[in-house]
Every structure is written in structure tokens, then in C-alpha cells.
Design goal:
This protein has 225 residues and is of the alpha/beta class. It has a single domain, classed as Uracil-DNA Glycosylase, subunit E (3-Layer(aba) Sandwich), CATH 3.40.470. The protein is 43% helix and 11% strand. Strands 1-3-2-4-6-5 form a six-stranded mixed β-sheet, sandwiched between helices. A hairpin with a 2-residue loop joins strand 5 and strand 6. The protein is elongated and about 110 Å long. Bound molecules: uracil (URA). The site of uracil has 13 residues, from helix 4.
């Protein structure tokens, strides 16, 4: 029916002297392809961030720095360990806990059936304080957002804070390490343990038995996850 009237109309146009007709092609609706869902890769994200921050100059520690020590290990871990700051070996290597204290830490992890590749380790400050002194409040303040960001990417279920500096900084309490060890904490909803820093254990062998008690608690919790 419609075809017939179109034909008649075209004949009429022809008779009126119109020879050519231009048709605008109908608009074809483009179907937008959805981009493939982005799979969040914490390892890739941390790599990007380490690259972004490695020339950080937010506090004076950069002046004595050889290498920025961001953190190492498995970003998909359930257990994250936090120390104080890089020492001379770490500063040279750009990796955390690689010196004598680090070697002891590796053994401590083995004692609870874990390897360094199964956990993630970072520090309160990413650059070496001179003469291995404790990081200053301003240095910690400037550096803390890096650690907070790492924790929010890794989303560990357990935190183990090594030493009083890590504990006092993250838990915002000024008490002796012995007192810190007496309980567990919730840091941003993450179950948090405090134990001795391995460097302190190297100086005070007698404390190793207490560290072993702490480690066993962490192991029990880790294995129950
Ligand atoms: N001590 C720390 O607290 N962190 C390291 O990376 C090395 C030693």
C-alpha cells in the first residue's frame, strides 16, 4: 500500500521535472560496547605507587636516602607486618628488612610456617633516618599516608606491628612495648598484634620467648582465616 503511493509520488516528481532524489540514510543507532570490567590488581597498583613516590621529598629524610623502601611481599596476603624504618642495608637495597633484623624476621616467619612471599612487610617511614635514630614526629606524619594507602590496597586481615615505634604511631598510644603486647587492637577494623622488633630481639635474646608467644597467637589466628 505504502509502496504504491511512493511509486506514484516518484512518477509525479518525474513528470514535474525532478530527475534526482537524494535520500538521507536512516540513522543507525550505534550500540556502545561496554568496556571490559577492570580487574583491580593490588600488585600492579602498589608498583605504580612505588614508582610515583620513590623520589619523595616531603620530609628531610630524602637528603640522606639512597633508595626509597616502599614495602615488599605478597599484596594479596592476609597478614601484613609493619616495622619502623629502613636501616643501612635496606637503604642500599631499596627493600625492607633485608639486614640482620630482616634475616631474623624471616626465621621468625618460618617458625610459624610462613615465608616472606606469603606476607607483606612495610615500615612506618620509607627512608632511612640518619644513624638509625627513631623517626621524628614530622617525618612519620609526612610518611604515614603511604602506609595507610598500602594497608587500604592490601586489606590484610591481621596486622603485626613490630616494635614500639610502629605500635605507638599506628595505635596512637604512648605505653611500653610490654604493655602493648598485653592485648590485641583494631586498627581501622583490622585485628592488630604488637610484638618485639627483631632488632630488639637481636640485642635482648631473653625476649625471644615472649616474641614466640606472640607469634603463636598470630599463627593461630592466621590459620583460622
Ligand atoms: N628495621 C625496620 O624497622 N625496618 C626495616 O626495613 C629494617 C630494619
Amino acid at each position: 500500500m505504502l509502496q504504491k503511493s511512493v511509486k506514484q509520488y516518484l512518477e509525479y516528481l518525474k513528470l514535474s521535472g525532478i530527475q534526482d532524489i537524494f535520500f538521507r540514510p536512516p540513522k543507525v543507532k550505534k550500540i556502545k560496547k561496554k568496556p571490559p570490567p577492570q580487574i583491580f590488581d593490588p600488585a600492579q597498583k602498589l608498583k605504580e605507587l612505588e614508582e610515583k613516590y620513590r623520589n619523595c621529598k616531603k620530609c628531610p629524610l630524602w637528603e640522606g636516602r639512597n633508595k626509597f623502601c616502599y614495602g615488599n611481599g605478597n599484596p594479596q596476603t592476609k597478614l601484613m607486618l609493619i616495622g619502623e624504618g629502613p636501616g643501612v642495608d635496606e637503604d642500599r637495597a631499596g627493600k625492607v628488612f633485608v639486614g640482620k633484623a630482616g634475616q631474623l624476621l624471616t626465621k621468625m616467619l618460618h617458625a610459624i610456617k610462613l615465608t616472606r612471599d606469603e606476607v607483606y612487610i612495610a615500615n612506618i617511614v620509607k627512608c632511612r633516618p640518619p644513624e638509625n635514630r627513631n623517626p621524628l614526629p614530622e617525618e612519620k606524619k609526612m610518611c604515614l599516608p603511604y602506609l595507610e594507602e598500602q594497608i587500604s590496597i592490601i586489606k590484610p586481615q591481621i596486622l603485626l606491628l613490630l616494635g614500639r615505634v610502629a605500635a605507638a604511631t599506628l595505635l596512637e598510644m604512648d605505653i611500653p612495648l610490654k604493655a602493648f603486647r598485653e592485648q590485641t587492637y583494631s586498627y581501622k577494623g583490622i585485628k592488630t598484634y604488637v610484638s618485639y622488633h627483631p632488632a630488639a630481639l637481636l640485642r635482648n635474646i631473653g625476649w625471644k620467648k615472649f616474641a614466640w608467644i606472640d607469634l603463636q597467637k598470630v599463627q593461630k589466628d592466621y590459620q583460622s582465616l
